[in-house]
Amino acid sequence: MKKLSTFSIWAFAIAFAVACQPKSSENAEKMQEMPAEEQTAEQRPSPLEVKEGQIAGKSIKVQYGSPAVKGRTIWGDLVPYNVVWRTGANEATYIDIPQEIKVEGKTLAPGKYSIFTIPKESGAWTVIFNSDWDLEHGHFQHNEKNDVLRVNVSPVWENTSAERLSIDIESPGLVIRWEKLKLPITIN
Description:
Layout: H1 2-20, H2 25-33, H3 36-43, E1 48-55, E2 58-65, E3 94-97, E4 101-103, E5 106-108, E6 111-118, E7 125-130, E8 147-153, E9 156-170, E10 173-186
Antiparallel strand pairs: 1-2, 2-3, 3-6, 4-5, 6-7, 7-8, 9-10
C-alpha cells in the first residue's frame, strides 16, 4: 500500500510538472525576440497606430493611441470641452514632417510635434502643434510655452459612429474621426 501511494504521488508530481510547461517553446521564443514595445502594444486597450502618407507630395507620419467608445459618452464627458486633450490615448499623439507644410494656411517648419486639441461644445476647435512631441502622459504634460502653432478647425458631426479613434492622412490633410466627430485639418 505504501509503495502504491508513493508511486501515485510521484506520478502526480511528474504529470503536474509536465502540464505546467509551455505548450510551445516556439511561441515563447517569438515573444523573447519581439521588442518590448510590440509586446505591450498587443496588450494595450488603446492600440498604438502609425499612419504614413503624402499630402501634396509631402511626407507625413502620425502616431497615436486609438481608444474605443465602449458605450461611453465621449464629447463633454470623457473628453471635456474647453480643456486641452491629447487627441488620442496614453502618450501624446505626434506628427513627423520632414519638410515645411502649411496647416490651415499657417506655416509649420519640419520636425516632430505633439498634437493636442481643445474641443468646444459649439464652433471651431483649437488644434495645437507643440514642440514637446515625446510626452509619456499626453496632455498631463502639455506646456503651452512650447506651442509652435495653433489653428482653428470646424468639426463635422456625422450620422455614422466610429468605434475607434483614427487619424488618417487623406484629403484635405489629417482627418480625425471618433464617435460621430470628423475633424478635417487642412494641410498643403
